[in-house]
Amino acid sequence: MINLDNKVALITGSSDGIGAATATLFSSLGAKVAIVGRDQTKLDKVAAECEAKSPHHYKPVVIKADFVRDEDVVRTFEETISAYKKLDILVNNAGLSSKKGFGEPDALADYDRVQQVNVRAVVRLTELAAPHLKETNGSVVNISSVAAVRPNPGSWSYCMSKASLDMFTKCMAGKLAPHVRVNSVNPGAVLTSFTRDRPDLEALGPFFIQKNPLKRVAEPIDIANAIAFLASDAARNMTGSIVFSDTGLLVADPYAK
C-alpha cells in the first residue's frame, strides 16, 4: 500500500492535467504539497481539491511561477522550503511542447524555450533540492514521455528535451544514490486540457486508441498512480528506472490495421 503520510512534495506544473492529478492524489495519501503553475485561477481550484482530499485537511503551498525564468525556479524552491522546512519528494512535471518545425522562422528560439523549461529548470530545481532530499532519504520523479525514444520529426525539440531528461534521470540516480532515488515516468497520449483543446482531437482520439494495444487513451490519474508508486517506499528498490505508462504504444504492432 502506498503511504505518503506527512511527506512534503513539490509538484511542478500542477495547475492542470498530470500535475493536478498528482497533487490531489498525494494529498489524499496524506502528503503536504506545494503546487506550481502559471494560472492562478487553476492553481486555486487544485488547492481547494487538495485540501478537500487531505485526511489532515492540509492546505497546499500555492506558487505562481513560469519556469521560462530561472528566477521563478529558484523562488519556487525557496518558497517551498520556507513553508515546510524540508523536502521528501520532488516531481518535475512542468513542461512545454514544441511549436516550430525544423527550419521554420524562430525555430531555434522556440527550441531554447522548450529546453529551458523541460531540461534546464529540472536540472536547476534538482540541484537546489538535492541537499534537502539527502536529509530525508527522498525521491525525485521526472515526467518524461514516449517521445524520448519514439522520434516525431514534427516535435523534434520536444523529443530532444525528453531524451535529455531520461539521461539526466539515469545520471542523477547514480550520482545521488544511496540517499536519493531518481526515476522517471514516460507517458504516451494523455487526455489533458492540452490535448482536449486541440482542434484535431476528434481525429486523434480514434487514432491513438487504434494504435495502442490497450485500446484506450490515458487519464491523468493513470500517470499520477505511477508517480505516487515511484515516490513512495513501495518503490524503495528502484532508482534510475524509466517507467513507460503508454497504454502499450511502444510495443504496438506497426503493421496492425
From TrEMBL:
UniProtKB keywords:
Oxidoreductase
Q: Spell out the Pfam families in the cross-references.
A: adh_short_C2
* Keyword Oxidoreductase among UniProt keywords: yes
A molecular function (GO) held by this record is:
oxidoreductase activity
Q: Please, which domain of life does this record's source organism belong to?
A: Eukaryota
Provide the protein name. Answer: Uncharacterized protein
Organism (species): Tetranychus urticae (Two-spotted spider mite)
